[in-house]
Amino acid sequence: MFDHLQVVTREFQPNKPDPAPVSHMALNWELPAENILVVGDDKADVISGHKAGTMTALLINDASKASELTPGTPPCDIAISSLHQLLEHLQKPIIIKPSD
């Protein structure tokens, strides 16, 4: 199902919410950012992915709440409460809307 799977740890500098970790992965995979989905449980993950030009999914759990996405934080493309829910989203057709 997944062509590429990579984890970037906190040791990577600069850290999220800087887009550098996501851009680094896109470069290594030779993929355009718009073909990548960043999945995280923190608003820094959403910000980093958004700044890098990817789609984003926020895993909402006890440690992270949708309310953490304060004004000025870019919205996530998908909000999920389990990784099983993410799989359900990934199995659906994706409709890309052109930018205005």
Automatic annotation (TrEMBL):
CDD domains found in the cross-reference section: HAD_like
Any idea what this protein is called?
A: Phosphoglycolate phosphatase
So which domain of life are we looking at? Eukaryota
SUPFAM superfamilies for this protein: HAD-like
| Species assigned in the record | Amphimedon queenslandica
Q: Which residues form the signal peptide?
A: none
